[in-house]
Amino acid sequence: MHYHSHRVTMSREAFMKLSDYPDRLGGIVDCVHHIGGSKFDRTVPDTAAGFHQVRTEYKRFILYKTFDNKEVKALGQVLTLMEHHYQRVDGQWQLAGTRLGSRMNEFNLERIFLEKKGSKAKI
Known about the structure:
By secondary structure, this protein is mainly beta. It has one helix at 12-17, and strands spanning 7-11, 28-44, 47-61, 72-89, 92-107. The protein contains one helix and five strands. The model is unreliable at 1-7 and 119-123 (pLDDT under 50).
């Protein structure tokens, strides 16, 4: 399978820490994930892979002193094929890793995820 040039593979721990950077999101960001289709393959009894078509819509709002005024500052949409890896540990299925295959970005997506100078938050 061929992906767009932006391809990231990360561990479960890195995936869980992704939103742990205060400089990364900041302000109000609204997102909606539309799952188009999913397929699961069990490779061996205790491991499986899940493939998910996802279209995500993002809106970044201008932050005022109150949350009442939600003026849209930036819009972005992404079409992605997510590959999740699962492992059964002590009888429980757990996320073991993920691979992002971004296929298309629309609008001004680069203005959704902020990175301040000196920030170590990178995808």
